[in-house]
Amino acid sequence: MSDAYDPAREGAKMSFEKDMSYIDYLALDQILGAQHRLSSAHDEMLFIIQHQTSELWMRLALFELSAARRELQQGHFRPAFKMLTRVARIFEQLNNAWDVLRTMTPSEYTALRDDLGASSGFQSHQYRLIEFILGNRNRAMMKVHEHRPELHQMLEAEIAAPSLYRVALDALAEQTGLSFDLSDQPLDQPHTADAGVLAAWKRVYQHPHDYWELYELAEKLVDLEDYFRRWRFNHVTTVERIIGMKRGTGGTSGVAYLRRMLEVELFPELWQVRGQL
Prior knowledge:
Radius of gyration: 23 Å
CATH class: Mainly Alpha
Shape: globular
Largest sheet: none
Helix content: 55-70%
Structural class: mainly alpha
Strand content: under 5%
Low-confidence stretches: none
């Protein structure tokens, strides 16, 4: 008599002919069937899965960032803190994924590059939405999505809404009583450092116990940008390691373009205030 383990003996459900299974719930047939190689290159499967999983993580990041913004607008700081912490950890996952892609050598990438055509991560509408919600807004970046009106409309709606940081600044002004005028900074433009905002954050950091929620919000935002910066840096390093200084498949200058992105500060006053304490 076999003594092999049988989970049914412990009550595990084993028949799913009429019930929803794990595969059904997660739509795994669609997800695992979405890797369509266009070349015979072995490493194309890695390339596809790397980018598909990154898009899934970005979808979650957008879900959490949008929810965090709504919570802050309603004055609900604690739920927003949890969501912002989760987004930082999502970017930690995205960072770790570069280590896998970096196992691809230049020779291996060359074998599949022509099959990519003009497709490029530069065209990721989810990445652009993340940048927009965090405040790095540039209408020129929307043009690449004009052929997909529904995606272009998503970007248009986001760029017309207050960024996460602008909502945080509304809370900063309300709770510190310090006023600053951002009327000369349109919502569809990136935020630039403002002396009044810097003064308000300085008060928060000098008196954290008087403004604990703002103090914690500031650190959550810094933590998020810290992980986001690491993701950008690892992106540059990975691209340079694999293609050197060649132009990107989407026509950008490749590494040169990505290096410019390293100079972007999403929440400038939160970094500047550190030198004033």
